[in-house]
Amino acid sequence: DADVTQTPRNRITKTGKRIMLECSQTKGHDRMYWYRQDPGLGLRLIYYSFDVKDINKGEISDGYSVSRQAQAKFSLSLESAIPNQTALYFCATSDSSLTNTGELFFGEGSRLTVL
Amino acid sequence: GDSVTQMEGPVTLSEEAFLTINCTYTATGYPSLFWYVQYPGEGLQLLLKATKADDKGSNKGFEATYRKETTSFHLEKGSVQVSDSAVYFCALTTSGTYKYIFGTGTRLKVLA
Question: Considering only CB atoms, which residues of chain B are within 8 Å of chain A?
Answer without folding.
Answer: 31-32, 34, 36, 41-46, 49, 51, 89, 93-100, 102-105
